[in-house]
């Protein structure tokens, strides 16, 4: 199916990777951004997402809206509303918990306009949600789910990932506890756990971070507690970020310097991003990525746990952009229910197979440990069959 796709924020690092994949698949692609895309075959359209009329005009005449304009806590719901007003299906890789809640609050508008929206169709959230739902099918009672991640991207990029991370650890975050929503203080040392990633990452400390998995998974699973725990490479940066938060440097508090207003979070994110980009230019090294999911509960009358661990050197733009592109076929098919959904609405096995087709080299290094199966390796495309063949009594 060939689609006319408008990619809002498509000139950025992650958006560009999606545009590249969309063009390669033969779709007609318009990049709606303040900057021009460098991807050959894409049409450029200058758009300011803060200008409603500019945004609305950019969406006209397309089949689907893809949103990479971040941070999502500022722009996610804004672009989604414009898509719904135009009666167009919508998809993004939103990674902010509050933004996911704001998107879900627009469910009525999506249904009223007869459209389907998927928020969080990237890596985490996204593929990680698929890991969780596949494992959860083996349990008769799901007591808890931990989504864990470690990110150490060694490619140059913009400040948006750090801004998102700082936002996710600076304020109280929504989580799911004992079957209900509550808010907690994130990134506390008391929330740390060591997730058993395999090499090349190895066991790694992760702490509570604000993320959409705690918002969307409880909508489809009868689960007691859901947590998202993350960390950046190196592990020693955790104490630095806790210190920066403690003195308010990760907040949106504005200061005036030489007559120019700037908020603390933007300054710190830009400063550290510039240092990162200079460092990787001087000393290129492989990226480090870890995604882990543990599900705990009961299988019949027996207490059990199961986990999926992925550790590799995939860059973040590949693992985030490709899953979104792989989900477009299901979104555009018209088979999914109208309204706003997390990535759990997708047929996970079909989605994972499509990711593997689009980029066979990404999402390697997956290991699975089930109640009746010691840890063993799996491909992304074969994961659903492996878990479905588990002999544990569901």
Explain what you see.
Helix 1 crosses helix 11 (316-332), helix 2 crosses helix 3 and helix 3 (72-85) packs parallel to helix 4. The protein starts with a strand and ends in a 6-residue tail after the last helix. It is globular and about 60 Å long. The model has no long low-confidence stretch (mean pLDDT 94). With 394 residues, the chain is of the alpha/beta class. It has helices spanning 13-24, 52-59, 72-85, 97-104, 107-112, 127-136, 160-170, 213-220, 237-246, 264-282, 316-332, 348-358, 383-388; strands at 4-8, 28-33, 43-46, 64-67, 90-92, 116-118, 141-152, 173-177, 180-184, 193-195, 204-208, 223-232, 254-257, 260-263, 288-299, 302-312, 339-341, 366-370, 373-378. An eight-stranded mixed β-sheet has the order 10-11-12-7-15-16-18-19. A seven-stranded parallel β-sheet has the order 3-2-1-4-5-6-17, with helices on both faces.
Strand content of the residues, in percent? 25-35%
Instruction: Give helix % range.
Output: 25-40%
Please tell me how large the radius of gyration is.
Answer: 20 Å
Strand elements, count: 19
Rounded mean pLDDT score = 94
Largest sheet: 8 strands, mixed
Structural class: alpha/beta
Q: How many distinct helices?
A: 13
Q: Which overall shape is indicated by the principal axes computed on the Cα atoms?
A: globular
Distance between the termini: 37 Å
- Subunit organisation of the chains: single chain
Q: Which strand order spans the largest sheet, edge to edge or round the barrel? A: 10-11-12-7-15-16-18-19
Uncertain stretches: none
